[in-house]
Amino acid sequence: MVTASQLPFGETLRARLGSPAHPVGLESSPRSQVWRIELAGRPAVLKQLVAGPGADERYDREVAALTIAGRASGTPVVPAILGTDPAERVLVLEHLDEGRPPADWIVDYAAALARLHSTARPGDAGALPRWQGPTGADVTSFLTLAETLGVAAPSGVRDELRALVGRLDRAEGTALLHGDPCPGNDLHTPDGVRFIDFEQASLGSGLMELAYLRIGFPTCWCVTRASGPLLERAEAAYRTSWHAETGTPLPDTGLADACAGWLIRGDALVQRAQRGTTDHLARLPDEDWTWGTATARQRLAHRLGVVAGMTSDDGDLRHLGALAADLRRAVLDRWPTVRPVPERRPE
Questions:
Q1: pTM of the full predicted structure?
Q2: Each residue's pLDDT tens digit, 235-281
Q3: Which of 27, 161, 290, 321 is most buried, with most CB under 10 Å away?
C-alpha cells in the first residue's frame, strides 16, 4: 500500500495543487499506476505511466488527446487535467462519479464518441500521429487462414483487399480517435459519458471507431454485439451528434471499409502487449484463446458475419463478402462449440 509521501507527486505539482492525501490504488493496466487521492479535501485521480518501451510516447498522446478533447462544447467528454509532470509521466485528473451503464448504454456512448471525435481540428495535425490501418501482411495472413481452413478465395478478393488497404491508408478525416474506446474506458457519469485512457490516441476518420459498434470492439477485452434496433439507434445517435457538432453530415460510405479493415487484422484478436509479436490469424487453426468476454474464434466468427452482411451488395468488397460468408460457415462447421459473442457488457 502506497502512502501519500510515496506518491509520484513532485514539488511542481505540490506548489500548484497542494499535498495529496489518502491515496487508494485503482485498477489499471500494467502500463500505468492509478490512485484516487484527495487535494484540499476534494477527490482527484493521479495517474503515472510506468517506465518501459513507448512510455513517453503514450504519455504525450494522452496529454495531447485530453487537451484537444477539453475543447468540447457544453458537457465535457473527458476529465479535466488538473496538472502534469512530464518528467515523471504523471497526470492529475478530475475525479468522476461513475454510475452503472444502462441496458442501452451504447446509444449514449455513441453520441459521446461523436462529440469526442469532433473536438479535433485541421490545425491539430502533428499533435498526434495519424491512425494506422491494416497492411499487406494482414491481407496475406487473412487469405492464408482461408486456405488453411479449406475455403477457396474468389479470384478477385486479393485485389479487393489490396485496394481496401490503400483506401484505409488514405482515409480522410481529422477526428480525435481514442485508440481504445472500450467498455470500461467510458465512464457513465450523472452528466453524461466521459472517456479515459488515451494512450493510443490518434487523428483520422471517425468511421474507424464508429465501426466498433458493429465489428465488436476489436481492440477491447470486452466484446459485445448490439441487436439490430439498438445498433440502428446507436449509429443514428453518432451521426446526429457528429452533424450537430461539426455542421457536416457523416459520409454515407466508408463504414464497410472500416469493418473489413478490423476483420483482417490478426492483432485485433489479442491484447495490446501481444500485438506485433506474431501472426495471430495463423494460430487460429491450432489453438483458441480467451481474452476478456470472448475467445479469438468467437471474435473472428462475429466479424466475418458482420462483414459478410455489409458487403454482399458492395461493389468494392463483394468478393470479400462472399469469402467472409464461406469462411464463417467453415469456422462454425469446424468448431461447432463457438458461440455468438455476448450481448450484455459485464457489470
A1: 0.95
A2: 999 999 999 999 999 988 899 999 999 999 999 999 988 998 999 99
A3: 161
